[in-house]
Amino acid sequence: MRVAHFSDLHVLALDGVSRTRFLNKRFTGLVNLRLKREHKHRPAHVKAVARAVAEAKVDHVVITGDLTNLALEQEFEAVKRLVEEDLGVAPEDVTLVPGNHDLYTRGAMRARRFTRFFASYLESDLPELAAEIDLGRFPVVKLRGPLAIIGLSSAVPRPPLVASGELGQKQIEALARVLAHDEVKRRTPVLAFHHPIHNPPSRVKTLVEGLVDASDLGDAIAHVKRGLLLHGHLHRRVQRAWETKAGALQSVIATSASLHHEDEHRMAGFNLYSFNGAGDLEDIAAHVLVPKDGSFRVDSVPKWV
Asked: Is the pLDDT confidence value at 268 over 60?
């Protein structure tokens, strides 16, 4: 079984947006875009990634958040078109979760824009185990072959210049229920959430950009023997083991699908994970965009050093 993973599309769509929509955190976000981000994130790269994943004919696709830039309706509409038309994979074969940019403001959370636009992609095989959080019902579980793909939301609205995430007690307790379910226990778990489980060494940096309740999540997965943890957020591809009391899970971060960068470990692309019939992870590969001709070069995902 093959699973493709990409992240951090950062789709920007400002046509028809009233200036009053920027009288909040979006103002600092727009300034940041104009000064240093807009030229780095290229819509053509996102389309190339989506089409390459479609051509790869994988069994499942995971998208780990920051689909939008400013959580505007126009951006969600643009992302939905891209997922439906360029990726073109049936909703039941796609797991997508929100990132901090998808809940950029409290209004975006109250309106549940992410869950409203992607409702068909958020249907769970174990809905009775989900928790009701501000954004909707999570975790979203998809039982596919030897895998249990579990989508979680680490996205919460934050003040300007803060991008940290949090799963929350209710969602972590729901995850524990999911992991204890017989249909999940006999499969290899693949957990997808935007913020990486490994936090920066500084407590201050964790509060600004990390996953603030990573230790609570670690307790919930302490007895898991094997599996994958899939993330975005850092705009670089890297892998690192997360050790548990029973074994270890591999934490893998995908770079931004829209990022144009001279560092090959940050250049846009997608990751591809291959499992055998028993759910053993056999291969992790990076497909790196070659901008000059739109092709993709296969490479390894570097290990954290």
From this structure: yes
* Average pLDDT in the chain: 94
Question: In this structure, is residue 304 part of a structural domain?
Answer: no
Q: Report how many domains make up the chain.
A: 1
Strand order in the sheet with 281-290: 94-97, 60-64, 2-6, 269-275, 281-290, 295-299
Q: Give the residues across from 143 on adjacent strands.
A: 148
Output the pTM of the full model. Answer: 0.93
Q: Is residue 305 part of a domain?
A: no
Neighbours of 195 (CB within 10 A): 31
H or E segment to which residue 2 belongs: strand 2-6
- pLDDT tens string 125-171: 999 999 999 999 999 999 999 999 999 999 999 988 899 999 999 99
* Cβ pair 46, 82 in contact under 8 A: yes
Q: Say if residue 283 is exposed, middle or buried (CB neighbours under 10 Å; 0-12, 13-18, 19+).
A: exposed
Which helix (H) or strand (E) covers residue 56, if one does? helix 43-56
